[in-house]
Amino acid sequence: MNITPGKLWGLRRLADENGRFKMLAMDQTGPIVNPIKAALNVAHAPYHHIAAVKRLLGTYLAPKASAVLIDPPLGYSATVDGISARKGLLVATEWATWEVTKNGRKSQNIPGWNPGVIRKIGGDGVKVNLWFRADVSDDVKEHQLAYLNSVKRDCRENDIPFILEFLVYPFPDETQEAFNARRVELVAGSLADTDIMNPEGVDVYKLEPPTETVDVPDPDAPDAARIQKRFDDMAKGLGRPWVLLSAGSTPEDFLRLLTYAYRAGASGYLAGRAIWSKAFSNFPDMAAMEKALADQAPRIMDDLNALTDRMATPWRENRNWENSVTASPAGEDFAPRYADFARTGNLVA
Protein backbone atom coordinates (compact mmCIF):
# COMPACT_ATOMS: atom_id res chain seq x y z
CA MET A 1 0.00 0.00 0.00
CA ASN A 2 1.51 3.31 -1.10
CA ILE A 3 0.73 6.45 0.89
CA THR A 4 1.79 9.98 0.06
CA PRO A 5 4.46 11.32 2.45
CA GLY A 6 2.28 13.87 4.24
CA LYS A 7 -0.39 11.32 5.07
CA LEU A 8 2.21 8.79 6.17
CA TRP A 9 3.93 11.28 8.48
CA GLY A 10 0.60 12.40 9.90
CA LEU A 11 -0.49 8.85 10.70
CA ARG A 12 2.82 8.23 12.41
CA ARG A 13 2.26 11.39 14.47
CA LEU A 14 -1.23 10.27 15.53
CA ALA A 15 -0.10 6.81 16.65
CA ASP A 16 2.38 5.80 19.31
CA GLU A 17 5.87 4.59 18.44
CA ASN A 18 4.53 1.09 17.80
CA GLY A 19 1.76 2.19 15.46
CA ARG A 20 -1.17 1.92 17.87
CA PHE A 21 -3.68 4.74 18.24
CA LYS A 22 -4.37 5.97 21.78
CA MET A 23 -6.31 9.10 20.91
CA LEU A 24 -8.13 11.32 23.38
CA ALA A 25 -11.34 12.97 22.15
CA MET A 26 -12.15 16.40 23.57
CA ASP A 27 -14.00 17.85 20.58
CA GLN A 28 -17.43 17.11 22.03
CA THR A 29 -20.05 19.82 22.10
CA GLY A 30 -23.32 18.48 23.53
CA PRO A 31 -21.74 16.19 26.13
CA ILE A 32 -19.85 19.18 27.55
CA VAL A 33 -22.07 22.15 26.77
CA ASN A 34 -25.39 20.64 27.88
CA PRO A 35 -24.24 19.58 31.38
CA ILE A 36 -22.73 23.04 31.87
CA LYS A 37 -26.03 24.68 30.90
CA ALA A 38 -27.93 22.38 33.24
CA ALA A 39 -25.55 22.90 36.16
CA LEU A 40 -25.62 26.69 35.79
CA ASN A 41 -29.30 26.85 34.81
CA VAL A 42 -28.54 29.02 31.78
CA ALA A 43 -29.67 28.93 28.16
CA HIS A 44 -26.15 29.28 26.75
CA ALA A 45 -23.00 27.83 28.26
CA PRO A 46 -20.42 30.60 28.83
CA TYR A 47 -17.29 30.14 26.76
CA HIS A 48 -14.97 30.57 29.73
CA HIS A 49 -16.55 27.58 31.47
CA ILE A 50 -16.28 25.38 28.37
CA ALA A 51 -12.70 26.50 27.83
CA ALA A 52 -11.79 25.80 31.45
CA VAL A 53 -13.18 22.27 31.23
CA LYS A 54 -11.42 21.48 27.96
CA ARG A 55 -8.19 22.98 29.24
CA LEU A 56 -8.24 20.64 32.23
CA LEU A 57 -8.95 17.64 30.00
CA GLY A 58 -5.91 18.47 27.92
CA THR A 59 -3.67 19.19 30.89
CA TYR A 60 -4.29 15.94 32.73
CA LEU A 61 -5.14 13.44 29.99
CA ALA A 62 -3.20 14.43 26.88
CA PRO A 63 0.08 13.18 28.42
CA LYS A 64 -1.37 9.65 28.34
CA ALA A 65 -2.51 9.89 24.70
CA SER A 66 -0.71 9.41 21.41
CA ALA A 67 -2.84 12.22 19.96
CA VAL A 68 -5.70 14.53 20.88
CA LEU A 69 -8.82 15.43 18.92
CA ILE A 70 -9.99 19.01 19.35
CA ASP A 71 -12.58 21.28 17.77
CA PRO A 72 -11.73 24.75 16.41
CA PRO A 73 -14.70 26.74 17.84
CA LEU A 74 -14.37 25.82 21.51
CA GLY A 75 -11.33 23.61 21.96
CA TYR A 76 -8.30 24.66 19.93
CA SER A 77 -7.55 28.06 21.44
CA ALA A 78 -8.43 26.88 24.94
CA THR A 79 -6.25 23.79 24.96
CA VAL A 80 -3.45 23.81 22.41
CA ASP A 81 -0.92 25.70 24.55
CA GLY A 82 -1.26 23.11 27.30
CA ILE A 83 -0.70 20.10 25.04
CA SER A 84 2.79 18.83 24.35
CA ALA A 85 3.94 19.50 20.80
CA ARG A 86 5.12 15.90 20.78
CA LYS A 87 1.52 14.73 20.72
CA GLY A 88 -0.36 14.25 17.48
CA LEU A 89 -3.00 16.87 16.73
CA LEU A 90 -6.26 15.73 15.14
CA VAL A 91 -8.72 18.53 14.31
CA ALA A 92 -12.40 18.29 13.42
CA THR A 93 -13.49 20.17 10.31
CA GLU A 94 -17.17 19.63 11.11
CA TRP A 95 -18.83 20.55 14.38
CA ALA A 96 -22.37 21.10 15.68
CA THR A 97 -23.24 22.62 12.31
CA TRP A 98 -25.30 19.94 10.61
CA GLU A 99 -28.66 20.67 8.99
CA VAL A 100 -31.58 18.71 10.40
CA THR A 101 -34.32 17.60 7.99
CA LYS A 102 -37.17 15.18 8.57
CA ASN A 103 -35.38 12.69 6.31
CA GLY A 104 -31.90 12.91 7.80
CA ARG A 105 -28.98 15.13 8.81
CA LYS A 106 -26.73 16.95 6.36
CA SER A 107 -23.14 17.42 7.50
CA GLN A 108 -21.11 20.52 6.71
CA ASN A 109 -17.80 22.12 7.59
CA ILE A 110 -17.36 24.73 10.25
CA PRO A 111 -17.78 28.00 8.30
CA GLY A 112 -14.44 28.97 6.81
CA TRP A 113 -12.74 25.73 7.85
CA ASN A 114 -11.46 22.87 5.72
CA PRO A 115 -8.45 20.51 5.61
CA GLY A 116 -6.26 23.28 4.21
CA VAL A 117 -6.93 25.49 7.22
CA ILE A 118 -6.29 22.58 9.57
CA ARG A 119 -2.97 21.93 7.84
CA LYS A 120 -2.06 25.62 8.30
CA ILE A 121 -2.61 25.54 12.08
CA GLY A 122 -0.39 22.49 12.45
CA GLY A 123 -2.94 19.69 12.37
CA ASP A 124 -1.62 16.18 11.79
CA GLY A 125 -4.99 14.87 10.65
CA VAL A 126 -8.57 15.81 9.77
CA LYS A 127 -11.56 14.20 11.45
CA VAL A 128 -15.09 14.24 10.08
CA ASN A 129 -18.18 12.86 11.76
CA LEU A 130 -20.46 11.82 8.91
CA TRP A 131 -23.99 11.42 10.19
CA PHE A 132 -25.47 8.53 8.23
CA ARG A 133 -28.10 5.85 8.31
CA ALA A 134 -29.13 3.73 5.34
CA ASP A 135 -32.80 4.76 5.44
CA VAL A 136 -32.24 8.46 4.75
CA SER A 137 -33.86 10.06 1.72
CA ASP A 138 -32.02 10.13 -1.60
CA ASP A 139 -31.28 13.84 -1.38
CA VAL A 140 -29.74 13.46 2.09
CA LYS A 141 -27.54 10.59 0.93
CA GLU A 142 -26.47 12.57 -2.14
CA HIS A 143 -25.55 15.52 0.09
CA GLN A 144 -23.57 13.32 2.49
CA LEU A 145 -21.71 11.63 -0.36
CA ALA A 146 -20.88 14.98 -1.95
CA TYR A 147 -19.66 16.33 1.39
CA LEU A 148 -17.61 13.19 2.06
CA ASN A 149 -15.99 13.32 -1.36
CA SER A 150 -15.16 17.01 -0.96
CA VAL A 151 -13.28 16.30 2.28
CA LYS A 152 -11.47 13.36 0.69
CA ARG A 153 -10.39 15.62 -2.16
CA ASP A 154 -9.24 18.42 0.15
CA CYS A 155 -7.27 16.00 2.33
CA ARG A 156 -5.55 14.62 -0.74
CA GLU A 157 -4.73 18.10 -2.04
CA ASN A 158 -3.25 19.04 1.35
CA ASP A 159 -1.64 15.60 1.87
CA ILE A 160 -3.10 15.21 5.35
CA PRO A 161 -4.64 12.07 6.88
CA PHE A 162 -8.42 11.72 6.84
CA ILE A 163 -10.04 10.01 9.83
CA LEU A 164 -13.68 9.27 9.03
CA GLU A 165 -16.25 8.68 11.75
CA PHE A 166 -19.75 7.35 11.19
CA LEU A 167 -22.57 7.90 13.65
CA VAL A 168 -26.19 6.85 13.37
CA TYR A 169 -28.85 9.08 14.91
CA PRO A 170 -32.62 9.38 15.48
CA PHE A 171 -34.89 11.12 13.01
CA PRO A 172 -36.79 14.14 14.40
CA ASP A 173 -40.02 12.13 14.74
CA GLU A 174 -38.30 9.09 16.26
CA THR A 175 -38.25 8.64 20.03
CA GLN A 176 -34.97 7.96 21.75
CA GLU A 177 -36.35 4.63 22.95
CA ALA A 178 -37.29 3.56 19.42
CA PHE A 179 -33.89 4.64 18.13
CA ASN A 180 -32.03 2.80 20.88
CA ALA A 181 -33.91 -0.38 20.01
CA ARG A 182 -32.73 -0.09 16.39
CA ARG A 183 -29.23 1.31 16.89
CA VAL A 184 -27.32 -1.93 16.32
CA GLU A 185 -29.37 -2.62 13.18
CA LEU A 186 -28.77 0.91 11.91
CA VAL A 187 -25.01 0.65 12.46
CA ALA A 188 -24.91 -2.55 10.43
CA GLY A 189 -26.98 -0.95 7.67
CA SER A 190 -24.67 2.04 7.41
CA LEU A 191 -21.57 -0.13 7.18
CA ALA A 192 -23.20 -2.18 4.43
CA ASP A 193 -23.62 0.86 2.17
CA THR A 194 -20.89 0.48 -0.47
CA ASP A 195 -21.09 4.12 -1.58
CA ILE A 196 -20.50 5.52 1.88
CA MET A 197 -17.98 2.82 2.79
CA ASN A 198 -15.73 3.32 -0.24
CA PRO A 199 -12.27 3.42 1.42
CA GLU A 200 -10.65 5.46 -1.35
CA GLY A 201 -9.39 8.67 0.23
CA VAL A 202 -9.93 7.45 3.81
CA ASP A 203 -6.92 6.69 6.00
CA VAL A 204 -8.52 5.52 9.27
CA TYR A 205 -12.10 4.72 10.21
CA LYS A 206 -13.48 5.70 13.60
CA LEU A 207 -16.38 3.32 14.24
CA GLU A 208 -19.04 2.99 16.90
CA PRO A 209 -19.55 -0.38 18.57
CA PRO A 210 -21.85 -2.65 16.53
CA THR A 211 -23.50 -3.86 19.71
CA GLU A 212 -25.03 -2.63 22.94
CA THR A 213 -22.73 -0.38 24.94
CA VAL A 214 -24.10 -1.05 28.44
CA ASP A 215 -23.72 -4.28 30.40
CA VAL A 216 -21.32 -5.56 27.76
CA PRO A 217 -20.77 -9.33 28.10
CA ASP A 218 -17.38 -10.59 29.22
CA PRO A 219 -15.40 -11.28 26.01
CA ASP A 220 -14.21 -14.57 27.51
CA ALA A 221 -17.66 -15.77 28.58
CA PRO A 222 -19.34 -18.66 26.76
CA ASP A 223 -21.97 -16.36 25.22
CA ALA A 224 -19.43 -13.84 23.86
CA ALA A 225 -19.27 -15.39 20.38
CA ARG A 226 -22.43 -13.55 19.30
CA ILE A 227 -20.89 -10.18 20.12
CA GLN A 228 -17.52 -11.08 18.63
CA LYS A 229 -19.20 -12.00 15.34
CA ARG A 230 -20.68 -8.50 15.13
CA PHE A 231 -17.22 -6.98 15.44
CA ASP A 232 -15.69 -9.48 13.04
CA ASP A 233 -18.41 -8.79 10.47
CA MET A 234 -17.90 -5.03 10.85
CA ALA A 235 -14.17 -5.35 10.24
CA LYS A 236 -14.52 -7.39 7.05
CA GLY A 237 -13.69 -5.48 3.92
CA LEU A 238 -13.07 -2.11 5.56
CA GLY A 239 -9.91 -1.70 3.53
CA ARG A 240 -8.33 0.60 6.11
CA PRO A 241 -7.21 0.54 9.75
CA TRP A 242 -9.92 1.39 12.25
CA VAL A 243 -10.32 2.56 15.82
CA LEU A 244 -13.23 2.30 18.22
CA LEU A 245 -15.14 5.13 19.87
CA SER A 246 -16.62 4.74 23.33
CA ALA A 247 -20.19 5.94 22.65
CA GLY A 248 -20.42 7.19 26.22
CA SER A 249 -19.92 3.74 27.73
CA THR A 250 -18.45 3.25 31.18
CA PRO A 251 -14.72 2.54 31.45
CA GLU A 252 -15.47 -1.09 32.33
CA ASP A 253 -17.79 -1.57 29.36
CA PHE A 254 -15.37 0.20 27.03
CA LEU A 255 -12.54 -2.13 28.03
CA ARG A 256 -14.75 -5.05 27.09
CA LEU A 257 -15.81 -3.43 23.82
CA LEU A 258 -12.16 -2.77 23.00
CA THR A 259 -11.29 -6.40 23.64
CA TYR A 260 -13.84 -7.48 21.05
CA ALA A 261 -12.57 -4.79 18.67
CA TYR A 262 -8.92 -5.75 19.07
CA ARG A 263 -9.72 -9.40 18.43
CA ALA A 264 -11.32 -8.20 15.20
CA GLY A 265 -8.20 -6.26 14.19
CA ALA A 266 -8.74 -2.70 15.47
CA SER A 267 -5.65 -0.50 15.76
CA GLY A 268 -6.60 1.51 18.83
CA TYR A 269 -9.19 3.88 20.20
CA LEU A 270 -10.39 7.45 19.82
CA ALA A 271 -12.45 8.08 22.93
CA GLY A 272 -13.47 10.76 25.37
CA ARG A 273 -16.50 10.26 27.58
CA ALA A 274 -15.50 6.81 28.83
CA ILE A 275 -12.33 8.47 30.10
CA TRP A 276 -13.44 11.80 31.52
CA SER A 277 -17.24 11.74 32.02
CA LYS A 278 -17.10 10.75 35.67
CA ALA A 279 -14.61 13.48 36.51
CA PHE A 280 -16.61 16.03 34.52
CA SER A 281 -19.75 15.16 36.50
CA ASN A 282 -18.26 17.21 39.37
CA PHE A 283 -18.84 20.45 37.42
CA PRO A 284 -19.26 23.25 38.52
CA ASP A 285 -16.99 22.21 41.39
CA MET A 286 -13.81 22.75 39.40
CA ALA A 287 -11.54 21.73 42.27
CA ALA A 288 -13.28 18.36 42.59
CA MET A 289 -13.24 17.93 38.84
CA GLU A 290 -9.53 18.72 38.65
CA LYS A 291 -8.79 16.27 41.47
CA ALA A 292 -10.67 13.50 39.66
CA LEU A 293 -8.91 14.31 36.40
CA ALA A 294 -5.57 14.17 38.17
CA ASP A 295 -6.23 11.00 40.19
CA GLN A 296 -8.88 8.83 38.54
CA ALA A 297 -9.09 9.54 34.81
CA PRO A 298 -5.39 8.90 34.07
CA ARG A 299 -5.76 5.43 35.59
CA ILE A 300 -8.59 4.75 33.14
CA MET A 301 -6.26 5.68 30.30
CA ASP A 302 -3.55 3.48 31.78
CA ASP A 303 -5.94 0.52 31.60
CA LEU A 304 -6.99 1.36 28.04
CA ASN A 305 -3.38 1.80 26.95
CA ALA A 306 -2.23 -1.44 28.55
CA LEU A 307 -4.97 -3.34 26.71
CA THR A 308 -4.09 -1.51 23.50
CA ASP A 309 -0.42 -2.42 23.87
CA ARG A 310 -1.31 -6.08 24.38
CA MET A 311 -3.97 -6.56 21.74
CA ALA A 312 -4.31 -3.77 19.15
CA THR A 313 -2.99 -4.32 15.64
CA PRO A 314 -0.39 -1.69 14.61
CA TRP A 315 -1.94 0.29 11.79
CA ARG A 316 0.77 -0.65 9.30
CA GLU A 317 -0.07 -4.30 9.90
CA ASN A 318 -3.73 -3.94 9.02
CA ARG A 319 -4.86 -7.13 7.32
CA ASN A 320 -5.76 -5.23 4.15
CA TRP A 321 -2.27 -3.75 3.83
CA GLU A 322 -0.19 -6.82 4.62
CA ASN A 323 2.48 -4.76 6.40
CA SER A 324 3.68 -3.13 3.17
CA VAL A 325 2.89 0.53 3.74
CA THR A 326 5.44 2.74 2.02
CA ALA A 327 5.71 6.39 1.06
CA SER A 328 5.19 7.31 -2.57
CA PRO A 329 6.82 9.06 -4.31
CA ALA A 330 10.22 8.05 -3.00
CA GLY A 331 13.75 7.52 -4.22
CA GLU A 332 16.05 9.64 -6.32
CA ASP A 333 13.27 11.44 -8.19
CA PHE A 334 11.25 12.19 -5.04
CA ALA A 335 11.63 15.98 -5.20
CA PRO A 336 10.36 16.54 -8.77
CA ARG A 337 7.63 13.90 -8.49
CA TYR A 338 6.29 15.32 -5.25
CA ALA A 339 6.45 18.84 -6.67
CA ASP A 340 4.31 17.60 -9.55
CA PHE A 341 1.87 15.96 -7.12
CA ALA A 342 1.67 19.16 -5.06
CA ARG A 343 0.92 21.15 -8.20
CA THR A 344 -1.58 18.81 -9.88
CA GLY A 345 -2.96 16.57 -7.14
CA ASN A 346 -2.13 13.57 -9.30
CA LEU A 347 0.52 11.04 -8.40
CA VAL A 348 2.22 9.56 -11.44
CA ALA A 349 3.46 6.01 -10.93
TrEMBL record:
Gene3D superfamilies: Aldolase class I
UniProt superkingdom: Bacteria
Keywords on record: Lyase, Plasmid
Gene Ontology MF: a single term: 6-deoxy-6-sulfofructose-1-phosphate aldolase activity
Keyword Nucleotide-binding annotated: no
One Gene Ontology term from the biological process aspect of the record: 6-sulfoquinovose(1-) catabolic process
Entry similarity comment: Belongs to the aldolase LacD family.
Protein name per the record: Tagatose 1,6-diphosphate aldolase 1
UniProt organism field: Neorhizobium galegae bv. officinalis bv. officinalis str. HAMBI 1141
Lineage: Bacteria, Pseudomonadati, Pseudomonadota, Alphaproteobacteria, Hyphomicrobiales
